[in-house]
């Protein structure tokens, strides 16, 4: 018990702490730097083993066809080789033949222009509809979402059948609207697929209509992640709706915009079904070829088709290279 002295409680004495024994440092030579031991992280095989099944599927499903295509592009491989004749190695002859043809350069130019225009229009319309979905009430928003899902989920061939009837020269609703209510009488029997310019206009309408839902849902999901506190603070500071979108929402959803834009460029460059079906509906084939349909037209000459597909792959890498470099720089920051 502690002793009392004039009604003051005196605590018991605290025993002294044992001295801390510090090990002597290893003796080092004069002027030599001290070496510190770094702990090397243990290598774990488990995460890499889990990636093996997916890697095998990717290599078999994508790697083998890509390598086979690349090898065929350096050979002479046609119908005769399909029946057993050995393929002859021709080196770069297929590439020289294609790249020395002015028509091939015209197809490449049309494909790149069609890709960039469609990707830009799709992104503009998709972002606008995504912003609209954040502004409207629940009823109109659900109606718009259902309509976009139906447009996105409809099979491509069924969609193409509907659009062909809409732009039909005799019974199409588009010609009737232009001729009767709007007064353009010369459009009553207009054929949209005969001229290349109007052909690409119809193709652009169809491709954009089928691609917009993906952009809308992706960007809308990104806009929902913008903090409401930041939006309210910007609104209290007097920022307009455009300023809030331009300087607040866009920087926050920039990764989403980059990914969606990249996918649109890739998809619009290799578009095939829409162009092929419209060509079969009566359009001039040679004047309306894009890369996808032109490669298909070379299907009897597998080596030429492989070389053209390799060129298409290189063009895709060039168009998407700036995005990849920009993404890598942002990740380093």
UniProtKB/TrEMBL annotation:
It is a multi-pass membrane protein. Pfam families: BPD_transp_1. CDD domains: TM_PBP2 (cd06261). Residues 1-33 are annotated as: Disordered. Keywords: Cell membrane, Membrane, Transmembrane, Transmembrane helix, Transport. Its main location: membrane. The chain crosses the membrane at residues 45-67, 103-132, 144-166, 197-224, 245-267, 302-324. Belongs to the binding-protein-dependent transport system permease family. This is N,N'-diacetylchitobiose transport system permease protein. It comes from Modestobacter versicolor.
């Amino acid at each position: 018990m502690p002793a009392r002295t004039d009604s003051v409680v005196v605590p018991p004495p605290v025993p002294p702490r044992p001295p801390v024994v510090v090990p002597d440092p290893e003796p080092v030579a004069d002027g030599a730097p001290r070496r510190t031991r770094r702990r090397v992280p243990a290598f774990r095989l488990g995460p890499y083993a889990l990636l093996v099944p997916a890697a095998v599927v990717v290599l078999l499903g994508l790697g083998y066809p890509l390598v086979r295509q690349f090898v065929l592009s350096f050979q002479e491989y046609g119908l005769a080789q399909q029946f057993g004749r050995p393929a002859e190695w021709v080196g770069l002859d297929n590439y020289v033949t294609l790249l020395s043809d002015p028509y091939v350069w015209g197809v490449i130019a049309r494909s790149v222009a069609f890709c960039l225009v469609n990707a830009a229009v799709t992104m503009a319309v998709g972002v606008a509809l995504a912003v609209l979905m954040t502004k409207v009430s629940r009823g109109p928003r659900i109606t718009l979402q259902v309509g976009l899902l139906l447009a996105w989920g409809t099979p491509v061939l069924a969609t193409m059948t509907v659009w062909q009837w809409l732009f039909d020269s005799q019974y199409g609703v588009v010609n009737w609207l232009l001729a009767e209510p709007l007064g353009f009488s010369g459009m009553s029997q207009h054929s949209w697929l005969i001229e290349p310019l109007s052909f690409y206009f119809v193709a652009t309408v169809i491709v954009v209509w089928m691609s917009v839902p993906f952009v809308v849902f992706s960007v809308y999901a990104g806009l929902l992640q913008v903090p409401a506190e930041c939006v309210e603070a910007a609104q209290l500071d007097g920022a307009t709706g455009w300023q809030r979108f331009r300087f607040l929402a866009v920087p926050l959803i920039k990764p989403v915009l980059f990914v969606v834009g990249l996918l649109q460029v890739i998809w619009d460059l290799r578009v095939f079904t829409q162009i092929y079906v419209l060509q079969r509906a009566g359009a001039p084939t040679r004047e309306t070829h894009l890369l996808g349909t032109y490669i298909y037209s070379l299907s009897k000459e597998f080596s030429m088709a492989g070389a053209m597909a390799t060129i298409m792959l290189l063009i895709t890498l060039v168009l998407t290279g700036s995005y990849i470099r920009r993404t890598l720089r942002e990740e380093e920051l």
